[in-house]
Amino acid sequence: MKNGLLLLGKFLAKGVFLVVLFFAVTTMMIHIISVIDTRYAKRGNTLHPYFRVAVFDASDGTFKLAFLPEAKECSKNGACYLIPEKDHGRVDGENGKYSAYELLEKNETRVILQTISNDDENTFWYIYSVDNNNGIVPVKTKMLYFGYVFPAMGMALLFVGLFGVYGFALLAKLFNLRKRVEGE
Predict the structure, then answer these.
(1) Residues near 53 by Cβ (< 8 Å), separated by ≥ 6?
(2) Is the separation of the CB atoms in 49 and 37 below 8 Å?
(3) Which of 47, 93, 99, 106 is the most exposed place for a label (fewest CB within 10 A)?
(4) What angle do CA 130, 133, 138 make, to 5 degrees?
(5) Which residues pair with 90 in a beta bridge?
(6) Contact of 68 with 52, CB cutoff 8 Å
(7) Between β-strands 98-106 and 88-92, what pairing exists: parallel, antiparallel or unpaired?
(8) Which of 121, 117, 113 is closest to 138 using CA atoms?
């Protein structure tokens, strides 16, 4: 009876370890997929959809994220401006949604900004430059997308399966070798 409970305890401990490992590897793989899916305008990649830039209201200086065509039109009319006065800003919405911007680089001829748009399922990072000659020029986009969960889970399942088979076998051999050495 005692050996049966001990065996059950070891089995449950291995199961809990594998479940925790599965979720940890899934989370890590989601971020790795996001980095792999980063798209650069200079390389000719198609940027992620809904490219948004920070526009600042000319009357009170508040910011919002606007789609690229809307931002260009707004700046032509003088109703808004594209270069911030502060280095960063954030507007919180409902249910954890938020919009933010951060000034990455500023010199006499251009400004590089990063905007972040977070909703229920996706987080987008848009990096672009605003310069005197070309206006708004997209640099790169990155996305953390709900759909990345499924391939990440597949990769994590493969990893955990291989670890479950080979890792525990190697650990068992290691502990058996220790018992033999200690027993001698």
Answers:
(1) 65, 66, 68, 71, 82, 113, 115, 126, 128, 136
(2) no
(3) 93
(4) 40
(5) 100
(6) yes
(7) antiparallel
(8) 113
* Residue whose C-alpha is closest to residue 125's, from 104, 100, 106: 100
Helix (H) / strand (E) element for 21: namely helix 2-36
Helix, strand, or coil here: 105?
strand
Q: Tokens 């391939």 identify what position? A: 151
Expressed in percent and rounded to 5, the helix, strand and coil fractions of the chain are 45, 30, 20
Residue type, position 117, single letter: S
Length in residues, the chain: 184
The fraction of the chain above a pLDDT of 90, given in percent, is: 24
Model pTM score: 0.74
First to last CA, the chain: 29
**Structure confidence at residue 36 (pLDDT):** 93
pLDDT averaged over every residue in the chain: 82
Do the Cβ atoms of 136 and 71 come closer than 8 Å?
yes
